[in-house]
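Moderator note: this is an archived Q&A kept for reference. The question asked for a predicted structure of one protein chain; the sequence and the answer are reproduced below.
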Amino acid sequence: MSDLGIDTELLDDRLPELKVVERILELKGKRHALVLAHNYQSPEIQFVADYIGDTLSLSMVARDAEQPIIVFCGPDFMVETAKILAPDKTVIYANAWARCPLATMITPEDLRMLKQAHPNASVVGYVNTSPECKCEMDICCASANAVRITQSLEAGEIILVPDANLASYVSRLVPDKTIISWHGFCAVHHMIRKTDVLDLIHDHPRATVIVHPECRPEVVDLAAMVLSTDGMMMHAAASQDREFIVATELEVVNRMIEYNPDKEFYGIEKAYCRTQKRVKLENVLQALETLEPAVNLQPEVLEGARRPIERMLEVGRAESLTGDER
């Protein structure tokens, strides 16, 4: 047992030097800082985090947190989204070089071009975008609420960017609207092929197939459930099923295994997010020691990007008040 009450026997061999962990936990208290970690982060990062979740849930935690300092272990767009929702807080990149490739696949200029080509369309933008792109949107969405957000809009024509696979999935469930997509994709989910899932189905024929909506359409076709990463975690815990094939980033599958020891989970071994894994314990420690690099956005960008994010959250609040469980 360490001085901070950590049972070292419970730490597996993937966890780096215990002194780094102890120093991080000590600095969190001294700085009155909150550490957030995305579901795709490595086990040692999740170990020192105060909250673990998907983009949507972590954004809301950042918004409502009482701590004045937030260290965000995730890609750039997530860290910036936290700052947009919590402009009075110091929000720090755990590693500013953890830059999401999907978020770079569309620029504000690209989005303005789409808007000019489709002037009657409402613009729905994935949170996996830059703050400057968010300024061009009517409303944001996450994988957990993309269908509900699209359904909530009056326009019959919807620009949904930048993930083409997510747009394809939404178009299936909202057939009364014309979905205009972009050619972006999540490298992790796009690399999952139909044959990868079929091989697992062959080996585990009784397993329930759960798929992330960023996967290719032919992979989505194989799914019993299409869910966000937090949705997958909740479904796995609540379901009476005992075996699951899970098509998403492998760290989510590892968490499912940890939290549901009485069930079996089979993941896609190559589904590994190299961007998220750039965040190391040493980065978290340095961020807490120096309080750098902090997110610094121009006031007009903060304000412009906040509007579509807050509109997304308002749609969610309205649905919860009316009991809508679509």
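Archived answer notes: The longest strand covers residues 33-38.
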